[in-house]
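Table 4 source record.
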Amino acid sequence: MPSKIKTAVFGLLLMMLLLCGCTSHDPSPSADGLLPHLSVDLQITTSADSDNNKTFSVAIEHNEQPFQDADRVQFEIFPENDPEAVQMVEGHQTKPGLYEASQKLDKGLYVVTCRVHSKDYQVMPSRYFAIGNEAVEKLALIEQSLKGDAVQTPDGGGHHHH
């Protein structure tokens, strides 16, 4: 099987697995009959202190208010073709509802999953991100192949260029 097809198949399978990973565990509906949930916005930025240091942040809200009750926030980071090389980085609350962590990384295509745990919720949004031109091109090919299969990345966007 050609390398591009293997990558596309792996990406499709990974996306289906990741799409199944975002859940919350609070079955009691609110007064309007809707189940309460957490909304999360997972972001990846370049830190000012080093070219290879990336800052991962997740803004978490519950009922449109900053969610400060997370028992644990972790960022799971691994190269897209090597899930065994996973790095776990603890997130720390830097302001109400915003949890951050930094990690030094080399050029490549990565998957980051943010694991938010609280008494009532477990949410795990994921997204791809690319460091370097070659990785950005590879990510563009994966996204293009996924669009043809009508599968979207968990965050609806999919990548961050560096």
